[in-house]
Amino acid sequence: MLEVTGLRVAYGGIQAVRGISFHVNQGEMVALIGANGAGKTSTLKALSRLLDAAGGSVRYCGKEVAKLAPHQLIAEGIALVPEGRGVFPRMSIVENLLMGAYCRNDTQGIASDIEHVFSLFPRLEERAQQLAGTLSGGEQQMLAIGRALMSRPKLLLLDEPSMGLAPLMVQKIFEVVCSVAREGMTVLLVEQNAKLALEVSQRGYVMESGEITLTDDADKLLANPKVREAYLGE
Hints:
- This protein has helices at about 40-45, 70-75, 95-100, 105-120, 120-125, 135-150, 165-180, 195-200, 220-225, 225-230; strands at about 1-10, 15-25, 30-35, 55-60, 65, 80, 155-160, 185-190, 205-210, 210-215.
- It is of the alpha/beta class and about 230 residues long.
- The chain has one domain: Rossmann fold.
- The protein has a six-stranded mixed sheet, with helices on both faces. Strands 2-1-4-5 form a four-stranded antiparallel sheet, with helices on one face.
- The longest helix has 16 residues, at about 165-180.
- The chain starts with a strand and ends with a helix.
């Protein structure tokens, strides 16, 4: 579904992503793990066109999308849940969800999908008219995922969904992500919690200093001594 070849991202003279190549097959959940500053978020920002790539190819369902505008990617079926959630703080939960569906005009389908998000995250339904800026970090993360789902994406890009959340909230978020993946959605997961990311994914890529240094099936990466020492604290 997604094939990235030679992707480069630069901030001025600093190379944040150094010509990486990887792929995500349809229906897979793939983890991209690495330390802070490895280039993981820059990779997702380039894929979602929030940053201009300095070079490389991004093919989605066989089509080159590296030069499309961000709103065109949404229409193609790619949605990003950004690091830091990025909810609209002065809008209600329902209004945030409607923003996720801004490129759609099927009123009944949108209403049905809001109900689906509420079934995944009952806490959001309880607070449906509450302003997003007044929610806890975990609730905002739920809302950010729900908002992304409202565009009915085929490929979901998740950037650090567990960051700053209590363990119980992380567990709930990942239960929903796994549930969505079981329904057939393709997921590319960027996550500092390497153990958690690899436990829920089929395959993984390890990123260091802007380069992909290792790739394998997730269970093999979990058992890899170098990965365990560097990322699992063992």
